[in-house]
Amino acid sequence: MIPYVRDIEIEYGRCDELSPLIRRVTANNPGPFTFKGTGTYIVGRGEVAVIDPGPDDLVHLQAILDAVAGETVTHILITHHHADHSPLAGALKAATGAPIYGCAVAGHEVEDSGEVKMEAGHDHDFAPDVSLCGGGEVKGKGWTMQAIPTPGHTSNHICYALAEENCLFSGDHIMGWSTTVITPPDGDMTDYLASLDTIRARNFDTLWPTHGAPIRKVDDFIAAYIAHRHQRIDQITTALKTGPARIRDLVPRLYADVDAKLHPAAARSMEAAMIHLVREGRIFAEAEGAYRLA
Fold first, then answer.
1. What CA–CA distances, in Å, run from 280 to 39, 131, 198?
2. How far apart are alpha carbons 29 and 204 in whole angstroms?
3. Less packed terminus of the chain by CB within 10 Å, N or C?
4. Residue 3: what pLDDT?
């Protein structure tokens, strides 16, 4: 079982002091993909970095500017290009002059067109001034941040490690309130599992997700996150022992304990798992969307 951390007190627009170097302002955009809302982090004192400014919301922009009044924003750091993370970066840059750091996504994804959307949408206009696709170090007055490429949730996802507090701003890569949606083709389960291993090996003291409360028991949490993914993958291979099957047939069986409204999201995650299993040679894709054991 994943030891979810869902206890968090939110007042939209308020600047919360979280540690000697970290503050957070939460946008008023709660929802099925954002939990209580997008938590925009401010790192440093006097000369600061802003991580994930959030959605295109001028009220939230003003709350960020109020929180850094009398200070200088020197860096705007983006974990990935989803619409609840990056769109406000342009307006924040215009207001502060700070450059935008992150990784541009290759190509444009097709937006979810079904009744149930899998994500909050994509920021197709996201274009960082400084590319961190290969990682790199970002420094400011009194703080040092390492960009860690963590593809999986998206191909361009980046986490940011704050050296001075041995903590990680984990974006949507690891969240305390929920598992992470992996939606092909930009989302990739093989990359995601490898990225989880990368983060676990770093032995961070705290994870600060963009949505929700901090994760303090980091190793236990990531271990449970990884175990959950492998359990879902094993459920698929076990189900296929009875013969070939399609995703739409397997989801109601394997996710019987999950609200049917979430089955479309489960189907996309299962598709990501199927691609991973095919890549490993453990299953084969057949005609008409069916899969069978190798």
1. 37, 31, 20
2. 28
3. N
4. 97
Domain 229-293 in the same topology as domain 15-228: no
Q: What one-letter code names the amino acid at 266?
A: A
Whether pLDDT at 111 is above 80: no
Q: Is the pTM of this model over 0.85?
A: yes
Residues in CB range of 94: below 8 A, 6 or more apart: none
Domain residue ranges in the chain: 15-228, 229-293
Q: Spelled out in words, what is the top-level CATH class assigned to the domain 229-293?
A: mainly alpha
Any residues with CB less than 8 A from the CB of 40 and at least 6 apart, and which?
A: 24, 25, 26, 27, 50, 51, 52, 53, 54, 60, 64
What is the Cα 214 distance to its own chain's centre? 14
Q: Which fold has domain 15-228?
A: Metallo-beta-lactamase; Chain A (3.60.15)
Which residue shows structure tokens 């925009």?
Answer: 40
